[in-house]
Request: fold
Amino acid sequence: MAIEGPLRELGIHDVFQLLDLSRKTGILSITSPLRDNQGAVFFERGAVVFAAIRTNPHPLGELLLRAGKITESDLARARDAQARGDGSKRLGDLLVEAGAISRKELERQVRFQVEEVIFELMSWREGFFSFEERAEVDAPAEANIRISTESLLMEAARRIDEWSRIEAKVPNLDVVAVLADVGDDHPGFLELLPREWEVLSEIDGERNLRAIARAIAHSDFDVARVIYGLITTGIVALKTERPLEPEAAPTPTPEPDAPVLEPAREALRSGDAEGALAAANAVLTADVASVEARLVVSRALMKLGRPIDAAEALRAALNGDALNPSLHRELGFCAAWRGDLLAALGSWERYLRMQPAAADASHVRAVADAASRLRDLLQEHLDV
Reply:
């Protein structure tokens, strides 16, 4: 049975949700005359297994090359082998067989590629969609992946929320960034994250943000977010705009009787989850926007065996600070505790993308690897 119609009548998010809830298998085609573009998403029992767009900014070979995962000679040899063969072997498989990249890294990069196509398609508000249901799909993916549609919808919603804040300084991806004029009072030493240095090094006053994203094989969204942060700190300005004088930050005047968070943390360390919860909630009563208090609340709720309530506390904090990596890390542990390993892996992946050099990054990667192995073993059990 075909499901089709204009996007102005049934939004693309609703289409994805419908296919997820009904566990459909088939191919969703989306066409946008305004953009002169077309995309296709392959579904298998409601989950996404592949996605492609005609103007794909991240072809796999170039993506791996720009990300530093393979060399130009690796790519050239794989393409030659593909050309000499019968064309049935995928480029990714050839790179794995040649030892240029691990299977796990290949799947990670293919997942990134598919996710970015999905998020691009989810930004379309006009056009036409058509779903062709099939008994099975033969997805032309470079690796076998399976992505929860629910997690994609949640991430898309999060990006929409973040874009509403980013757009105040970065109106679109066609703007050109330049280094801002440095005042006498600007610190001479820059303490930036590796991702920020990577983006900053690509700013040349000529290429727009979309071109920079393609050059370093990162998502448009991640580059826009980094540029937003660099503009906010006065390091970067937009070429089409005159940099504003930095405003002096107001000195906070805390209430003298406002509760502090240390008693809540101490209660948590001593194993008094109820006491920690009460103390952290007291802080939230005085300062509803306190992210640190909500982190303590979530930890206390987890110790009390209430992972669903803990996740709600974290999502409330994300509404106020969607760029806080700790919230994504903790949300991953909440999801894992509930048994939702796909959601957990998605949250941890976002955390590691935001904080690749964090002190606990190796620990989070180890936990994510263990969760991934457990999920694979469970899947093998179902397939027996």
Notes: The chain has three domains: 3-161, 167-238, 262-383. Residues 241-248, 253-258 have pLDDT under 50 and may be disordered. Strands lie at 3-6, 26-32, 37-44, 47-53, 128-133, 177-179, 236-238. Residues 3-161 form one domain.
